[in-house]
Amino acid sequence: MSANPRPEDIEARRSEYYARVGEQQLIPLWLFFKDWFTRKPHVNSRPYAWSYRALRETIIESASIVDPVEAERRVLALENPGLPGRHLATESLYAGLQLIMPGEIAPSHRHTPAALRFVIESDGAYTSVNGERTYMKPGDFIITPSWTWHGHGHEGDGPTVWLDVLDVAMTHLFNATFTEHYPEHRSPEQTEPLDTLYRYGMNMLPVGYERGQGASPIFSYPYERTREVLGRLKDHSELDPCHGLKMQYVDPTTGGPAMPTISAFMQLLPAGFTTDSYKTTAGTIYCPVEGTGTVELPGAETPAIEYEPWHIFVIPSWQEFRITADSESTIFSTSDQAAQTKLGIWREQRGPDGA
Ligand code: GTQ
After folding, report:
1. What is the whole-number distance in angstroms between the Cα of residue 108 and the centre of ligand 1?
2. How far is ligand 1, taken at its centre, from the CA of residue 211, in Å?
């Protein structure tokens, strides 16, 4: 450049240059560096709560709109208001409420996205994963790891509803989404119910079992057991100031998260307990099973969420929050913490900003 060029000349030269490099599929980093390399995450998803009580009738009504064979899966997806049209609950996780009526089946398929179910209402419905049937009860946590055949059915009474969470935004990000439909509606069920629980979940393993094959060999984590664990521990445990008594669903053969990408937890907060302020880069979907309380969200558009059993609420990445349990609460939660930890980017902050 010549000495002391006029600002208009600099601007004109730059515009012409940017247009020219643009034609060669180039874009100067200095035009977007500040947008990308932010001091902290810029998050579009927003704190939001879906009231199961308010939605239940509408969900059940979907049975008269479509059957699960035509629909493949009869699900109402929970779309975060900050992510319009993206069909996602958080930037990385899809969530939906799936309905199965007595006598119906949802055909067997498999896909690279991993799925988890958190059961809200069920009496006699089952999911079958890799040929093993698991009957579902409220509060049960069930996984269908990547590329496992799975279908659902209902031999009992009343509507069955559960929360689905899938890592499909991650498989989309990596362009690694594949789906296959089982030629018949049902894939063969060749394994006894509870087989994997007894084979892998009783502090013993088959000789020669190779651990760390991606996901937990156990598909079902019944609430009955989870609740017993929390109930036994609560009175003689030191409560974590940010989490109360919080346990992670794990692959018992590795101690790591039950699935490689999605973490899941159940925590107990005693009546009257208020957590310390906390935030994490893992945007999280919550579903309380027992108890009522309040989630305070300093700085958010919605400053607080009141929760009750089966409410589903989202706390996005890096949103500070505190939970107060009005009555003893057990709260399920799930996030992409497992994936972020593997990538070495997961962060948390215990305590409020500036503390
Ligand atoms: O039950 O397999 O909510 O494949 C979305 C995709 C559930 C399932 C969803 C699925 C399923």
Report:
1. 10
2. 27
Confidence label for 186 from pLDDT (cuts 50, 70 and 90): confident
Calculate how far, in angstroms, residue 142's C-alpha sits from the geometric centre of ligand 1.
13
- Is 127 domain-assigned? yes
3-state secondary structure the chain: CCCCCCHHHHHHHHHHHHHHHHHCCCCCHHHCHHHHCCCCCCCCCCCEEECHHHHHHHHHHHHHCCCHHHHCCCEEECCCCCCCCCCCCCCCCEEEEEEECCCCEEEEEEECCCEEEEEEECCCEEEEECCEEEECCCCCEEEECCCCCEEEEECCCCCEEEEEEECHHHHHHCCCCCEEECCCCCCCCCECCCHHHHHHCCCCCCCCCCCCCCCCCCCEECHHHHHHHHHHHHHHCCCECCCEEEEECECCCCCCECCCCCEEEEEEECCCCECCCEEECCCEEEEEEECCEEEECCCCCCCEEEECCCCEEEECCCCCEEEEECCCEEEEEEECHHHHHHHCCCCEEECCCCC
For residue 355, tell me if it sits in a domain.
Answer: no
Which residue owns the Cα nearest ligand 1 atom 11?
A: 73
Percentage of the chain with pLDDT > 90?
Answer: 93
Asked whether the predicted pLDDT for residue 2 surpasses 70, the reply is no
Task: Report if pTM > 0.85.
Answer: yes
What's the domain count of the chain? 2
State yes or no: pLDDT of 191 exceeds 90: no
Its domain, for residue 27, covers 7-36
In a domain, 42, yes or no: no
